Amino acid sequence: MAKKDRKGTENPDKSGQKKTITVKIPSVGNPMAVLTVVLLVLLALSVLYNVKLAKGAKTDVNATGLMYICPTGQCDTKDIDEWSSGIGVSAKGYEADWARSPIGLYLEGSKVAIVDVSSKANYYTTMCEGTNLEAACTESKAAATETQKSACESVKKVDEPVLEAFVVSYCPYGLQMQRVLTEVQKTIGKDVDIKVRYIGAVVDGKITSMHGEQEATENHRQICMREEQASKYWDYISCFIKAGETDPCLDEAKIDKAKLTSCMSDANKGLKYAQVDFDGQNKYGVSGSPTLILNGEKASEFDFGGRSVQGVGSMLCCSMNKRSSGCDIQVSTDQAATGFSQTYSAGGGSTGAAASCG
User: Fold this and answer.
1) Where are the domains of the chain?
2) With helix as H, strand as E and coil as C, how does 99-146 read?
3) Among 128, 130, 131, 152, which residue's Cα sits nearest to residue 140?
4) What is the C-alpha separation between 82 and 73, in angstroms, rounded?
5) Which residues contact 118 (CB under 8 A, 6 or more apart)?
6) Which residue in 257, 201, 203, 251 sits closest to 225, CA to CA?
7) 285: which residues sit within 8 A by CB, 6+ positions away?
8) pLDDT reading at 70 higher than 80
9) Residue 230 CB neighbours (<10 A)
């Protein structure tokens, strides 16, 4: 309905107009808690609409630049000031009584980017992803290189690295890791032992899994292939990760179906093989898919470049006493696609998100 001014002229009623706000949530190696993200989004909305969110939160801020939000009495902005000034970003600290740890928002018009301020590397990575500022992206790459160098120096070195990747077969991120490993084993597979293991348990003589019976059966199937038809395992996985079509992939990989059925129906085979995986899961305290165990120790692919052929390959190459010739082959830095996908790449060269199922 139109409103009339003092002269009786009708003016459009703007109260019903909506303002679109774009909120970008970062993907980093150490994701912020969901509750923190929710609070940040609410705070962003409150700032843009000039609404006070909570007692003790100061929201008198220019809607361009970085808001560094910290617990009352703990607002040390030295690092943030240094990181921000280096890329030409204005930053200001604000105290909030609801904040439990420092968090950040980059505001620009109707766009809001959530910034991880927990470390220099994460700050630049999330600033790059959220703003596309050239200076932030340059610093992000430099910080990633520094992190990878440090991780490479500290990783345990052995003659033949052993990588155990714990997954479940229908987890989008487990599929992402299997997609990476299918490519990694093509370049350095002869010099390392890459084994996909599965998360679950044996209950009342049956394998169980976090996403139900269908996943448990597929885990069982892949375990039997890995143990009894190892030369065809990666061929099957390469097919399965595209669309999750079991029967066509069994045919494509030329799996001996009678042998597979025998393994899955014999408790002294399939269940016994699976229990080895589950014992390893308990030994290493594995709960999320994927989890990497390198030479008997938990490892993070995000210290080396994320869930990419380059990232996981670099991690393995760094753990070798004698570097493999395959380590010098140029490979993709793109993050692998999650879930079922006909293509390898999710696009982009960022470290991606350390998301997992579990």
Assistant:
1) 19-134, 153-328
2) CCCCEEEEEECCEEEEECCCCHHHHHHHHHHHHCCHHHHHHHHHHHHH
3) 128
4) 20
5) 30, 32, 101, 102
6) 257
7) none
8) yes
9) 10
CA distance 177 to 239: 14
* Residue from 351, 343, 143 nearest 243 by CA: 343
Residue with the two structure tokens 């030295």: 78
Q: Is 153-328 a domain of CATH 3.40.250.10?
A: no
Q: Decide if 341 contacts 182 (C-beta within 8 A).
A: no
- Helix (H) or strand (E) holding 188, with range, is helix 172-188
Model pLDDT for residues 215-230, shown as the tens digit of each residue: 999 999 999 999 999 9
Distance from CA of residue 218 to its chain's centroid?
23
Q: Are 21 and 47 in contact (CB under 8 A)?
A: no
Q: Are 43 and 57 in contact (CB under 8 A)?
A: yes
- Phi and psi at residue 299, to the nearest 5°: -135, 150
pTM of the model: 0.73
